[in-house]
Structures are given as structure tokens and as C-alpha cells.
Design brief:
about 150 residues, 6 helices
Length: about 150
């Protein structure tokens, strides 16, 4: 047996380190989640601006929507940091967010015509992130013992 296989026989690579392809795909996953963070943050800024530009029918409701969007963005920030570090707990959070994002995207597509491209962008991003999350190298990188 080689020295590498004696140190960690279940993982290929140098002393159990992740393969470059795994690192690249995990980094890409982090980038996709970071893009989602930016989009949700842009949505929060949009909601905040609407409070000041238009007189909302229900000011407290508009503020609540803004606060919820900020909380979601903050959660996604922690998920993005965790995904860059290949933390296993991020997988469930990412899947949950992709489902929620898909639902929001379909409402954009079915709604006002000017928002339809945003809906399609969100669907493409959600599907790409989910496919990447369930790829073998990412699963291996995020679920193997550290």
C-alpha cells in the first residue's frame, strides 16, 4: 500500500484532501448561492424603496415583507459561507431554498409580464443549483467525514 492509502484508505487524493474537481464544484455551488443572496438582497432593497416611493396601502405589511426578506437574505449569507466550506448542514438548507425559490419564480412567471424574465432566471438558477448540489462530487465533498 502507498503512504496515501494507509493514511486514509477511503478517500483518494493527498492525505484525504478533496480532489480539485470537488473543490471547484463546491466553490461553484457557493457562487450560485451567493448570486441568490444578491438577488434576495436586491429584492429587499426594492421592497424598502417601494415603501418610500409609493404610499403603501398597508405600511405595516410592507415593513413586515421587507424584514422577512432581510432575514431570508441573512440566512442565505450563512448558507453561502457554509457551502464554500463544504459544510454538510448546508445541503438541506440549499434544497429548501431552491424549492421556495422555484415557487416564487412560478408566481413571477404567472404574474405581471415585466416580471416574467426574473421568474425564468430564478427557475434556471434554482435548477442549476439543485443539479449541482446532487452531483456525485459535491455529495462526496459535503458528506464525507472531515
Amino acid at each position: 500500500m502507498s503512504e496515501n492509502s494507509e493514511l486514509n484508505p477511503t478517500k483518494p487524493g493527498l492525505n484525504g484532501q478533496k480532489q480539485p474537481r470537488q473543490q471547484l464544484l463546491v466553490a461553484l455551488l457557493g457562487v450560485l448561492v451567493s448570486i441568490e443572496v444578491l438577488l434576495v438582497t436586491a429584492g429587499a432593497i426594492y421592497f424598502l424603496s417601494r415603501i418610500f416611493i409609493e404610499k403603501p396601502e398597508n405600511l405595516s405589511g410592507a415593513i413586515v415583507i421587507f424584514v422577512i426578506t432581510v432575514i431570508i437574505a441573512a440566512g442565505l449569507v450563512s448558507i453561502a459561507f457554509g457551502s464554500f466550506k463544504a459544510k454538510s448542514w448546508t445541503r438541506g438548507a440549499i434544497v429548501t431554498w431552491q424549492i421556495m425559490q422555484f415557487v416564487v419564480a412560478t408566481s413571477f412567471i404567472q404574474g405581471i409580464a415585466v416580471w416574467q424574465p426574473v421568474g425564468w432566471l430564478l427557475i434556471v438558477l434554482a435548477v442549476a443549483t439543485a443539479v449541482l448540489l446532487f452531483s456525485r462530487p459535491v455529495i462526496t465533498a459535503m458528506t464525507s467525514e472531515k
